[in-house]
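Lab notebook: predicted structure, single chain.

Context: the supervisor wants predicted structures on file for every construct in the current expression panel, including those that have not yet been purified. This is the next one on the list. No modifications to the sequence; it matches the entry in the shared construct table.
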Amino acid sequence: MSIRTLIRGGLVITASDELHADVLIEDGRVAALAAHGTAAAETWTADRTIDASGKYVIPGGVDAHTHMELPFGGTAASDTFETGTRAAAWGGTTTIVDFAVQTPGHALREGLDTWYDKADGKCAVDYAFHMILSDVNERTLKEMDHLVGEGVTSFKLFMAYPGVFYSDDGQILRAMQRASGNGGLIMMHAENGIAIDVLVEQALARGETDPRHHGEVRKVLLEAEATHRAIQLARVAGAPLYVVHVSAEEAVAELAAARDKGLPVFGETCPQYLFLSTDNLAEPDFQGAKYVCSTPLRPREHQAALWRGLRTNDLQVVSTDHCPFCFRGQKELGRGDFSKIPNGLPGVENRMDLLHQAVLDGHISRRRWIEIACATPARMFGLYPQKGTIAPGSDADIVLYDPHAEQVISAETHHMNVDYSAYEGKRITGRVDTVLSRGELVIDRREFTGRAGHGAFIPRSTCQYL
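Prediction complete. Output recorded below exactly as produced.
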């Protein structure tokens, strides 16, 4: 039975507006907004009234880049769809877009169905899928059209990881040409993996085996070169391009130059590149392994360029690339050989809080916080205005956020299924208080009230910036 809910007295913040307003929810959707204290709002009645006084009322976060249960490097990401989406809810994220993986030699359909099975009935919040293309050929190119038709409208390719996910320039061009015809969006992991493998081999031969060398061999110039090459291939194909996990100033410059030409090129960065650096990779006693991810953490001076890119809209989205591996038993697989450390960090629970801290630190505005974490990812991947905003007709994915609460990020208190935090001991101001997903309470005043199976698969339309 549908419960009519009224959220009263908070500051509603969307990508475009800030207003003291009451929000009425019916049948899992936003029914109406009215300025707090007005005659219209005072006439509303509800089965449940939530007092939002002193809190922000914001759209649920949209994390457009997660990897739950991803097989990688002889192991698998430690968060399941159940644990990962529960942690997402705790962090104020109410929609994830995860990556289904095609096994080389197998159909896209087979990979997508495997991910449907992993997620079905397990998720605490809503979810959608991108498709990783591991094998570009006539059959898989045709399948791309069918996937767009069922709401899987973005396809990820890798210029990195030869022998695992790698596609050569010809395969990339063919996939981009197909996307230019069917409306799909190509997502690119832009690093020159062929050159990186040479540098890895040479480093190991010199006895350079520690985690810090992971960052040193995956050079900034090899990210910038691959970003440039991806942009030019997209131009040839007449296709849009979304570059994932941009980490370096030189790669941002390539995106900015393309956008200055009016090209449909977009960029994403992640909290780890905004808040962590090669200093973390160099932590002693193999602790640096916790921070091994690709693209790698960069020297701290790159952070200013990333923040600037977010302010100037040369970078549009902050996602997490959440791909957790426990330190014990997983990251430790690379002791004595950094190339065997599983690549990935936990973060789905921390993104909204870290970006709120960025507001307090003066990097971005409150509305830009909501834009890069909620509205733009929803628009980029065909979910808006169902997701990413608070407006009549939108899903009632709403977070009550306490901007004054103080917290210390720690593995002791987080809900991700991983034995360390990438931000251990970091003091921040701001915390999720209450979360609704399609009008249903998932977090109620810092208590989890959700359930596995509430989260639904959301078919997506095509990119709304094209």
